[in-house]
Amino acid sequence: MSRLFSNYIIKDLELKNRIVMAPMCMYSAEDDAKAKEWHLLHYATRAVGGVGLIIQEATAVEARGRITANDLGIWDDSQIEGLKKISDTCRKYGAKMGIQLGHAGRKCEAEGERIIAPSSIAFSDEYRVPNEMTKAEINEVTQAFKDAAGRCAEIGYDIIEIHGAHGYLINEFLSPLTNTRTDEYGGSKENRARFLKEIIRAVREEWPGEKPLMLRVSAEDYVDEGNHPEDLAELINFVKDEGVDLVDVSSGGVADIAPKAFQGYQVKFAEIIKERTNIPVIAGGLIIEPHMAEEILQNRRADLVFFGRALLRNPYWALYADQELSNIAIWPKQYERARLRKR
Ligand SMILES: Cc1cc2nc3c(=O)[nH]c(=O)nc-3n(C[C@H](O)[C@H](O)[C@H](O)COP(=O)(O)O)c2cc1C
Predict the structure, then answer these.
(1) CA dist., res. 41 & res. 152, Å (int)
(2) Which residues of the chain have pLDDT under 50?
């Protein structure tokens, strides 16, 4: 019996399988940050293709929180309509729908924004030097996450993922490489986790208690003095009681270094975080073959597996994996005649 094609229940969310589409920016919006036809087609195709949970790309909680001027946004009520269309359509076609709420911090490349970060340190020579956030700005961003969560509840997403990875704002607070503050938001791990803790608390005020909340982290900074998986586990332990149900384990993005990626390169990080926090995890990163995903799940190394580029290459990856592993998935009736009957 395939574990990839077994259902998974967390709070009021039931997934039909353990295939998660990783959040991936489409850089296809305009300056109003509203969803376009491309977004609808792109996500709906993966829903038809049998993905259990889709996590919509990083969606900015403030205009200055965009990575580029082509990101999606959720800071204004006028942005709700387009997002709701995507969420409703994907859910209609059998996927559950998540959204990644993000803030780019010092990695904001959108022109004309005053960029902010825990400390005034640029990501690289090609990036602008950010302004060190005041307490008032910290509160503003926390409020922006809260307001965005309210819109997510109104839209009807199944799960929110808070983007705490890849060297964006929350990650900049968590990592000692980017956070040199001397106030209560810097220094010790407990202090570096404070901003995230306040965000989770604020999001939870708007996001129904019966709905799960997920956190994406970068478990490894790939620099000796930076964070490692054991550090992330400690940081998560400081915030988890605010209501984190699932951790999506990624890595990198804080320092300007490309990790040496190989198939499954982040799975070990997910295992460490699962063991040390006691929270279910999603593992992924260069997972391409169905049997590899199955191994991760059967050996209880993770609870769910995410797929990014594999699903860009083939939106029907889940249907292909079903044929390899189980032949139990419900195919769209329009595609049934394409199904290979192995047994
Ligand atoms: C085009 C593209 C856009 C991405 N955008 C995001 C994003 O919005 N948020 C995020 O957390 N990760 C983003 N990522 C990283 C993916 O979610 C994923 O972690 C990464 O691609 C590794 O998984 P894979 O080897 O299965 O692709 C992006 C990756 C790609 C290829």
Answers:
(1) 20
(2) none
**Hey, CA dihedral for 246, 248, 252, 253, is it positive or negative?**
negative
C-beta of residue 213 within 8 angstroms of C-beta of residue 247: no
In Å, what is the CA distance from 309 to each residue of 23, 109, 294? 10, 23, 18
The answer to whether residue 163 sits within a structural domain is yes
pLDDT of residue 330: 84
Residue nearest to atom 30 of ligand 1 (CA): 24
Is 246 inside any structural domain?
A: yes
Distance CA 203, CA 208 (A): 9
Closest CA relative to residue 156, chosen from 49, 306, 263, 13: 13
Which domain does 234 fall in, by range? 8-338
List beta partners, residue 160.
Answer: 99, 213
Output the pTM of the full model: 0.98
Q: What Cα–Cα distance (Å) separates residue 161 from each residue in 70, 121, 203, 249?
A: 20, 26, 11, 12
Whole-number pLDDT of residue 328: 85
With respect to residue 1, please indicate whether it lies within any of the assigned structural domains.
no
Pocket test for ligand 1, best of 24, 51, 57, 292 (most atoms within 8 A of CB): 24
Q: Return the CATH number at 221.
A: 3.20.20.70
309 lines ligand 1 (CB under 6 A): yes
Find the 77 Cα to ligand 1 centroid distance in Å. Answer: 27
Helices then strands, counting H and E runs in the chain, come out as 11, 13
Coil, helix or strand for 270? helix
Query: What is the DSSP code string of 194-230?
Result: HHHHHHHHHHHHHS-TTS-EEEEEE---SSTTS--HH
Residue 291 domain flag? yes
* Overall domain count for the chain: 1
- What tens digit of pLDDT does each residue of 309-340 get? 999 999 999 999 999 998 888 899 999 999 88
Q: Please name every residue paired with 96 in a beta bridge, in sequence order, or none if there are none.
A: 53
- pLDDT (tens digit per residue) in 71-105: 999 999 999 999 999 999 999 999 999 999 999 99
Residue 216 Cα: closest atom of ligand 1: 11
d(CA 27, CA 268): 30
